[in-house]
What does this fold into?
Amino acid sequence: MITSALPNQPKRPGIVGWPLPDVSLRLAPGSGEIEIKGPNVFAGYWNKPEKTVEDFTADSYFKTGDIGERLSDGAIAIVGRAKDIFISGGYNVYPKEIEGEIDQLPGVDESAVVGMPHADFGEAGLAVIVMKPGHDPLSTDVVKRALRDRLANYKIPKMVVVTKALPRNAMGKVQKALLRNGFRELWQGDARKG
It folds into this structure.
């Protein structure tokens, strides 16, 4: 554990709390990746010195892989995962923000957004959506229109695919690499990505 809620603070969506005593938490300049140091952090990987060098900074902070934001009261919010971020037209895109907006659309059960190669923007968003039972699938055009007033244009997915379920690992996390690979041919053959 690195953060905890405070008993006198109301619960807020997306907030993971404040750093625990003896935990040093910082956000890496530029990326915003959460880096931590303290007695609760392991010293390195067993028999994997190259992995230790990769996942720790020169001053012994562990790179968590989570992208965070420090709020004015010191609380930490997680806004995404470093490996999920993609760059569209020179802008960093955090899929979690887009997924939050898509998940609020009528009939949507859950969604996952991944960055896909794009000739003009470098990368662009592909939204994979699971609908609630009894709801008609949403088209790319419907989703784009719904998000137009909620997100900057570069964040709006260029393509939407509706599926029955999102692939998950044993821990229940969505396997975004499988989505990227599974829909690559459809993405490459789609003429509406512009």
Q: What stands out?
A: The chain has a mean pLDDT of 91. Residues 41 and 113 are 31 Å apart (CA to CA). DSSP finds five helices and eleven strands in the chain.
